[in-house]
Amino acid sequence: MNRKTLLITFVLAGFLTACAMRRSEPAKQKMFEPATSQIANGEKIFMAKCQKCHPGGEAGLGIGLNPVPAPKFLKRFQIRHGLGVMPAFKKEEITRQELHDITSYMSAWKHY
Amino acid sequence: MFKITFRSPRPGLAVKLLIAASIPFFISCYGIKSSKGGGQLGRHMTRNPQAADVLLAPGYKIDLVTKGLTYPTACTFDDKGELYVIEGGYSYGESWTRPALIRISQNGDQKVIASGSDNGPWTGVDFYEGHFYIAEGGSKAGGKILKIAPSGKIDTLIANLPSGGDHHTNGPVVRNGFIYFSLGAATNSGVVGPDNAHYGWLKRKPTFHDIPCQDIILAGVNFDSEHALDKSAGSVTTGAYSPYGKPSAPNQRISGSIPCTGAVMRISVGGTKPEVVAWGYRNPFGLRFSPDGNLFVTENAYDERGSRPIWGAGDILWQVKPGTWYGFPDFSGDMLLAGDIEFKAPGSPMVQSVLKEHPNKPPKPAAILEVHSSSSGFDFANAAFGFAGEAFIAQFGDMAPDVGKTLAPVGFKLVRVDPASGVIRDFAINKGKRNGPASALGNGGLERPVSVKFNEAGDELYVVDFGIVQMSKKGPHPQEKTGVIWKITKTQP
Predict the structure, then answer these.
(1) Can you tell me the distance from the alpha carbon of B39 to that of A38, in angstroms, rounded to the nearest whole number?
(2) Where does the pLDDT of residue B20 fall: very low under 50, low under 70, confident under 90, or very high at 90 and above?
(3) Which of B1, B18, B128, B473 is deepest in the core (most CB within 10 A)?
(4) Sequence-ordered list of residues with C-beta below 8 angstroms from that of B337, at least 6 positions apart, any chain
(5) What is the reported pTM?
(6) Chain A CA closest to residue B429
(7) Average pLDDT for residues B198-210, to the nearest whole number?
């Protein structure tokens, strides 16, 4: 496999694993312990701002986030600028540091 | 619009591919997706509850206590530790049955202690100094607080509470000689509209509307709709806190009166005169005191329906600060709805405030729960169960499409919430590739958990599961005799 096909396969695989991405303590049979204070802070902000539409990163009012393979910087871009009906979160609402904390939490949650 | 600039004049293959791969992330697909609520996906109208189909956080197990109940809403224990459950006697979908107080024996047998009339739903029960206290929803004749003796004798402590609209009289919890209860708002967001005809009550009560606890001044915003009761009447205009078809004017004063809608109130155990504890709620359904003695409520938030639809409003866990206004109908939590894209329903105009002045800025919520999760009855854990001080909340689950569109079933499980940090974690969910009620997943797990209660020692958590309510364009389709009670305990002491 050359680099091109590898990348394409990687991206496609991300889309196909969509429904196998339930994430929670009962589903994983394992407690989630934030490994850093950044992740712990990211979880709190996610709960205050995002959980209502993306419960535990699963779909709800919004789409599921756990299966999204986009890199962190792209997610931060989407959160800042909004996407379709997803509201944009400006600096006054979520600071730059908080935005990084949220994406750290999202990836820790996705891989725990 | 989105614009990409490169630092090097000729981006490499990897960069090009990365950009190409990013394009799907900027395509919105919300509009073309259909609603997939938990009640919409269900195909199973019968129920065979199986504890093995429920997944819990590690270290806990679940057992079935009793089944075959019709619209159960809450349970409690008497002074001997015996378990009692109430059957509500009403379900959304305009289905009336007989509300009842039922004793459940150790082996799951059911014995009716008292039963009521077709003025349900009985929404909650508490036991205090030898008597049961019950909130009667009041769908037909107004809300009531009932006192029931162990012999089955029923006394009405207070009646004619204005709760014949979308939401009912809820609670109660009895503490230090006071009965705390709540009334949900008559409407979704302060304005009577065609959604209330669809729900059924507008035909029965054509002039009913919300009542504030204190005087309020309206902004004079009005809402047009096709006449929902009389198609030949054309269009009608309705203001907030006004009967259907009656416009409001700028600076119009609406007098407050007690009892009011969308409020937490209390009466003394011997008394009959309600006083307001806090107001400005939409539907404060669950009421509980925390271990340190503070009152908390769960509020079922706005839906995307009616003349003033609100999108993206999460259910809320509030600590009740006496004398405070909690934001209905112009805030979601502590966020102003007006002008915020987050609350604008797709295809509807931006939300405008209907009140000219707000009594106070609402406090910060203890937690913001999932939009449409119907986060309902809850209880606080102590050290005997683990997660001491956390609120265990039953999520009845979405009622899509009546409440708006949802991309996947929301709720239908138990969550635990740390009121200090607002962090929410799943505690009991159904097995399966995705979330949803047992009737949608085709298994024997949770259907619509509506309330929970710890026993006196705090080491057993009882879960009241309302049973099957499926949803179609015509509205809710509840199934009698599909309600159950579950019990959750630790696997190791």
Answers:
(1) 38
(2) low
(3) B128
(4) B310, B313, B330, B331, B343, B351, B353
(5) 0.94
(6) A26
(7) 94
Identify the CATH number of the domain defined by range B4-490: 2.120.10.30
In the block, residue with structure tokens 């909130």: B135
Length of chain B: 493
Q: Mind telling me how many Å the CA of B30 is from chain A's nearest CA?
A: 7
C-alpha B46, offset from chain centre: 24
How much is the pLDDT for B6? 35
Using CB atoms, which residue from A22, A60, A85 is nearest to B30?
Answer: A85
pLDDT number for residue A3 = 53
- Domains in chain A (CATH in brackets) are 37-110 (1.10.760.10)
B407 and A62: CB-CB below 8 Å? yes
Q: For residue A83, how many other CB atoms are within 10 A of its CB?
A: 18
* Of A31, A61, A64, Cβ closest to residue B406: A61
Model confidence pLDDT, tens digit, residues A16-43: 444 447 999 999 999 999 999 999 999 9
Taking alpha carbons only, the member of B218, B145, B190 closest to residue B283 is B190
Q: pLDDT tens track of chain A, all 112 residues? A: 455 554 454 444 444 444 447 999 999 999 999 999 999 999 999 999 999 999 999 999 999 999 888 999 999 999 999 988 999 999 999 999 999 999 999 999 999 9
Asked if A83 has any chain B CB less than 8 Å from its own CB, the reply is yes
